[in-house]
Amino acid sequence: MLHDPFLPRARYLRMHLSAEKAWSSPSLLASAPASCSNGCTARWAGLPPTCPKSKRWHSRAQALVLPDAIALPAIGENLRIVYTPTAHDRIALSYRENASLHLSGAVADPQRCCLALQGWLKGHARQHLGVLLQQAAQETGLPYSHYRVKGQQSRWGSCSTLGNINLNYKLMLLPAEWVRYTLIHELCHTVEMNHSRRFWALVAQFVPEYKAVHAQMKNAMAQLPGWVNVS
Ligand SMILES: [Zn+2]
């Protein structure tokens, strides 16, 4: 997802779908006149709102955010998304492993579709990230107490002093090596509750290329497909 549209010559609002990142699903590219504040476009792209004037534009933009495919590189799964409108008031969702997700019911409402997809991905993440975390704990010999999957806005994971690890379900949309790094990063916090030299030395034992991965992940949150940030 890109949103770098403040070209001085832009006179109209423009949107089109983009899938320029190999690891992201097709998503919205918005362009706006230079007079529009940065918050407007950020919100169109599904990022936290900072511009109250952009409300009318949000809803229009969100109508275009629905994906027709979702790639989950974290677990090597690609899903086609099929929307079938019916008279039902709710959205029902059925999943075929590594094939498709079918949404039926009130799918004319894009916001509800996005929320249904988010809810499904959270559950899917709970199952898969748990397995990956367990594997990482075994590989590193760093045990944790419990883990939870959440929908944090600005962090991929966290670790408490009690060794409880919170993971962001949006990790499912990232490359497997980035997810592995994140899990190991949090597991290393069970030993070092800081980002000291000792901490990074511990991370480097398991992810020697951690600096490169860390740098690559810097803008990953802002480049997620818009539907995961619709609220
Ligand atoms: Zn950390």
UniProtKB/TrEMBL annotation:
Superkingdom of origin: Bacteria
Domain YgjP-like metallopeptidase: 64-219
Spans through the membrane: none
UniProt cross-references to PANTHER family, sorted A to Z: UNCHARACTERIZED PROTEIN YGJP, UTP PYROPHOSPHATASE
Entry protein name: M48 family metallopeptidase
Organism encoding this protein: Candidatus Thiothrix singaporensis
